[in-house]
Amino acid sequence: MDAASNSGPMLLGIPVVFLLFGLILVGILLLHRRSLEVSLVGLVLIAGFRLGFSRFDLGQHLVHEWVKLSNLFGLLVGFALVADHFEGSHLTERLPRLLPRGRLGCFSLLVCVWLLSGLLDNIAAALIGATAAAALFKRQVHLGYLAAIVAAANAGGAGSVLGDTTTTMLWIDGVRPLAVLPAYIGTTSALVVFGSFASAQQHRHAPIDLNTAENLRIDTGRLVIVLGALA
């Protein structure tokens, strides 16, 4: 290992903290049912490594970055609350009556997430899509299909200045909204190709559950909160 630097020790020319982060992602992939525990352990390991083996000044970092960190925390918690209200509105229980049957229904949900991401932040679209999938498939969502939901949420905002932080920053910097529109050519192709495989995989794993409670009434109050927050 090289001498400690601002990034800490290196291994084969790569900062060890990057390797630890990669191991956390692998751990979440392999132990996705324990993703929270893996993430917390990884956070402690990386924070401890940076504090113990690099010139990282936590106090100075917080002074400079506390606004961004606070906004990010509020953003993530806010989107989680939106997803919770969306699930509590019981709208997801009505989705099986609206979506097509079979693989096409699975693919239609990905298309909805893709379209939604063109108007909302991709994190919000991914959370709402995952919440809807959990209800549609009675929480038997295949890991590949879950990855497809996240990919659709990211791809859907690529050609819109409203659906992705990066494209929004380009718009603020003076780039015309229509300049990013051609990105939809690539994302549409990816959605059709990879979304079809993921939908077939999910249908084999757990098809859309048609035995939903039809007597559940949509909670309009929660739905209004969701729409207001997304607006």
What does it look like?
It is a single chain. This protein is mainly α. Helices cover 69% and strands 2% of the residues. It contains ten helices and two strands, in the order ββαααααααααα. It has helices at 16-30, 35-53, 58-88, 91-98, 103-117, 122-136, 143-156, 165-172, 183-205, 220-230, and strands spanning 10-11, 14-15. It has a two-stranded antiparallel ribbon with strand order 1-2. A hairpin with a 2-residue loop joins strand 1 and strand 2 (14-15). Helix 3 packs antiparallel against helix 10 (220-230) and helix 5 (103-117) packs antiparallel against helix 6. It is globular and about 55 Å long. The model has no long low-confidence stretch (mean pLDDT 78).
Described by strand count, sense and barrel closure, the largest sheet is:
2 strands, antiparallel
Radius of gyration: 21 Å
Strand order of the largest sheet: 1-2
Mean pLDDT over the full residue set: 78
- How big a fraction of the residues is strand? under 5%
**SSE run:** EEHHHHHHHHHH
Number of strands: 2
User: What general outline do the C-alpha atoms trace?
Assistant: globular
Q: Count the helices. How many?
A: 10
Q: Could you estimate the helical fraction of the residues in percent?
A: 55-70%
Query: How far is the first residue's CA from the last residue's CA?
Result: 50 Å
Provide the low-confidence segments as ranges: none
Task: Look at the helices and sheets and give the structural class.
Answer: mainly alpha
